């Protein structure tokens, strides 16, 4: 969370009794997932241990959902950069999950699929081009049913850049700050050495259990592989 505090204008603090809407970080056995944007009342982010707690990027990814962002591969303009191999996606992830709840608000409409292309009204790149290095991008074999690619980059060299969970890309920081109106905080961010995707989707540690944050809303459901 310190990265959010240092390089964005988003801050998280312990929940107070007067806070009606809040984020609760839990460690259930259902993987790594978050709602997108603000929902009313208790809003859970699940970080299963240890799978979601070994690289810092997974908590950053789930918190970035909570503050209002979809996956990078959901962007409306994604077809110019990637194609989706639907036949290789695990059936449960092609159609999301039966228990998934959908919440609709003024900014987004129901978007239940981790691989769907969103409409122009559902996504906003905030002046950042499509970012293969984003912590919000899936790896090329994410949720594969057969080990074959589920996301195929138009430029093959980009395949090794997708799915990193080492930290924010500079584009991630730029999008957050442009969305929340504090672009002056972006220049201080130095992008870490971003490697390829981990063996499974993993994250970081030392996360407070109850924090305040988030705006907007839409969906819940398993987000990261584990």
UniProtKB/TrEMBL annotation:
Residues 186-205 are annotated as: Disordered. The active site is at residue 62. One of its GO terms (molecular function) is zinc ion binding. Binds 1 zinc ion per subunit. It comes from the Eukaryota. SUPFAM superfamilies: Metalloproteases ('zincins'), catalytic domain. CDD domains: ZnMc_astacin_like (cd04280). One of its GO terms (biological process) is proteolysis. Its EC number is 3.4.24.-. Keywords: Hydrolase, Metal-binding, Metalloprotease, Protease, Zinc. The keyword Metal-binding applies. Residues 192-205 have a biased composition (Low complexity). Zn(2+) binds at residues 61, 65, 71. PANTHER family: DISCOIDIN, CUB, EGF, LAMININ , AND ZINC METALLOPROTEASE DOMAIN CONTAINING, METALLOENDOPEPTIDASE. This is Metalloendopeptidase.
């Amino acid at each position: 969370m310190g990265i959010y505090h240092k390089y964005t204008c988003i801050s998280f603090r312990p929940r107070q009794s007067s806070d009606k809407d809040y984020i609760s970080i839990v460690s259930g056995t259902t993987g790594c997932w978050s709602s997108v944007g603000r929902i009313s009342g208790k809003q859970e982010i699940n970080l299963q241990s240890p799978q979601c707690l070994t690289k810092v990027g997974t908590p950053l990814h789930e918190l970035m959902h909570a503050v209002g962002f979809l996956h990078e591969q959901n962007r409306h303009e994604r077809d110019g950069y990637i194609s989706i191999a639907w036949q290789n996606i695990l059936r449960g992830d092609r159609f999301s999950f039966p228990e998934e709840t959908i919440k609709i608000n003024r900014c987004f409409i129901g978007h239940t699929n981790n691989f769907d292309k969103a409409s122009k009204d559902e996504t906003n790149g905030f002046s950042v081009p499509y970012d293969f290095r984003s912590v919000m991008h899936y790896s090329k074999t994410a949720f594969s049913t057969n080990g074959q690619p589920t996301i195929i980059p138009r430029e093959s060299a980009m395949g090794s850049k997708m799915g990193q969970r080492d930290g924010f890309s500079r584009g991630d920081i730029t999008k957050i700050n442009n969305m929340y109106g504090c672009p002056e905080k972006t220049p201080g961010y130095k992008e870490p050495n971003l490697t390829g995707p981990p063996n499974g989707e993993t994250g970081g540690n030392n996360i407070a259990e109850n924090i305040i944050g988030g705006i907007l809303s839409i969906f819940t459901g398993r987000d990261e592989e584990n």
